[in-house]
Write a structure and sequence with these properties.
By secondary structure, the chain is α/β, with parallel strands linked by helices. Helix content is 42%, strand content 21%.
C-alpha cells in the first residue's frame, strides 16, 4: 500500500508517518508540502490513497483535489483544520472520499484510510439493491430515486447501501459508523449527522422534515418504504 501525503506542516507529516510505521509498517509513504508537486506525484507515483491538506503554500487544496480528480479516481481524504460545514460539503462535492478535521487521533485516521482503500475493492461484485422507490447499484455507485439519478459521495454510498440492506430496520449509530469507517471513533455520530443531512438534501423534498431517511432518537437511522 502506498500513501501520498500532501501537507505543509512537518509535524503533521511526521505524526501521520509515525502512526503508519507503528500500525501499518508495510505501507510506503510519499509526501510533499506543495500542491502542484502533489498533483505530479498523484500521477507519477500511482498511490493507493491521498491524504490532502487544504491550506497549502502554493495553491489551494481544493485546486489539488480538482486537478487529481481530472485524471484519477484514487481515494482522497482531506485532513484539515477547516471545520466549517461549507468546506466539508465543498470537499465532498468536488470528489473527496472523506473529510477529517485536525486535530485527529491516529487510530481514527488509520481507520478512515483503511476504510477508503477497502471501498476501492469492495462492493464491486455486489448485486443492485432496491427498497421502495430507491435502486442502488454498488458496483457503479449509482443511486436512483424513481427515475431520477442522485449523485452521491463514497460515504453516502456506504450509508445508503447499509440502510437499504437493513430493509427498514434501524441502523444504529455504532453499526453505521463501523460500516462507513471500519470503527466507531469519538465524533463519529457528529460526522454521520453531516453526511445524513447532505443525503437528505439530495433525496428529500423538505430535508428539515424527512420522509425517506428517518431518525430513531438516541439509536440511529432507518429508511421509510415509499413508492
Amino acid at each position: 500500500m502506498k500513501a501520498l501525503i500532501i501537507e505543509d506542516d512537518p509535524e503533521i507529516v511526521e505524526s501521520v508517518s509515525l502512526s503508519f510505521r507503528i500500525r501499518w509498517p508495510e505501507a510506503q509513504l510519499v509526501s510533499t508540502h506543495l500542491g502542484r508537486k502533489g498533483i505530479e506525484l498523484a500521477e507519477s507515483e500511482d498511490p493507493d490513497i491521498v491524504i490532502l491538506d487544504l491550506g497549502l503554500p502554493d495553491i489551494s487544496g481544493f485546486e489539488v483535489l480538482r486537478e487529481v480528480r481530472s485524471f484519477s479516481s484514487v481515494p482522497i481524504i482531506i485532513l484539515t483544520i477547516k471545520a466549517e460545514e461549507a468546506s466539508i460539503v465543498r470537499g465532498l462535492e468536488w470528489g473527496a472520499d472523506d473529510y477529517v478535521v485536525k486535530p485527529c487521533g491516529q487510530l481514527e485516521l488509520l481507520a478512515r484510510v483503511k476504510a477508503r482503500i477497502r471501498d476501492r475493492d469492495n462492493l464491486v461484485d455486489e448485486s443492485p439493491l432496491s427498497f421502495g422507490s430507491l435502486l442502488f447499484n454498488p458496483s457503479t455507485r449509482q443511486l436512483l430515486y424513481g427515475k431520477e439519478e442522485i449523485n452521491i459521495t463514497a460515504i453516502e454510498a456506504h450509508i445508503i447501501h447499509y440502510l437499504m440492506r437493513m430493509g427498514g430496520r434501524v441502523a444504529t449509530y455504532i453499526g453505521l459508523a463501523e460500516e462507513v469507517w471500519g470503527d466507531d471513533y469519538p465524533g463519529s455520530v457528529d460526522s454521520l449527522r453531516v453526511h445524513i443531512r447532505r443525503l437528505r438534501e439530495k433525496l428529500e423534498t423538505d430535508p428539515s422534515h424527512p420522509q425517506i431517511v428517518l431518525t430513531k432518537a438516541g439509536l440511529g437511522y432507518f429508511l421509510a418504504k415509499l413508492g
